[in-house]
Design a protein that fits this description.
Elements: H1 2-16, E1 20-22, E2 27-30, E3 35-37, E4 40-41, E5 49-54, E6 62-67, E7 71-72, E8 77-80, E9 84-87, E10 96-102, E11 107-116, E12 119-121, H2 128-136, E13 140-142
Parallel strand pairs: 2-11
Antiparallel strand pairs: 1-4, 3-9, 5-6, 5-10, 6-7, 8-9, 10-11, 12-13
Length: about 140
């Protein structure tokens, strides 16, 4: 009897145990662009899930979205895929750490985001030959 109960409990525990197999990656984002952070697990998951942002020195992070049902703290934060996060548009204040958290089992993964200025193509050349070379090898400037 005890052995059957132990096997049953072990089966339930192992069916709920999971790992994040595609964690979010550290990224450099350009202000004004969009950024997608992936997060995926190795099995189907129907429990609560959230993204937390650790920006501005807030201890414990700030919940920026939770699912189900999908709720976001800003119209700039969108669900991406099953568990990913899209920020559109990225703002300077978005720099920091972001964690995807599966609340059943408290499984989480974290990535750091750095935000840089908007990129533009430099206009460094004046004659036609140099202009053509710029189209082939454009210089990139940060505003």
């Amino acid at each position: 009897m005890c052995l059957c109960l132990l096997v049953f409990l072990l089966a339930i525990w192992s069916s709920q145990a999971f790992e994040i197999d595609v964690p979010p990656q550290n990224a450099v984002a350009v202000a004004g662009s969009s950024l997608q952070l992936t997060c995926d697990i190795d099995q189907e998951y129907n429990g609560y899930f959230e993204w937390r942002a650790y920006i501005g020195g807030k201890l414990g992070g700030q919940q920026i979205y939770r699912s189900p049902p999908f709720t976001s703290t800003s119209p700039r934060f969108h669900k991406f895929g099953d568990f990913g996060l899209e920020i559109d548009p990225v703002e300077w204040r978005d720099a920091g750490k972001y964690s995807c958290v599966f609340l059943t089992g408290d499984v989480r993964a974290t990535a750091s985001i750095v935000v840089i200025g908007q990129l533009k193509t430099c206009s460094l050349f004046t004659n036609l030959f140099e202009f053509h070379m710029q189209l082939i090898f454009p210089a990139v400037c940060i505003l």
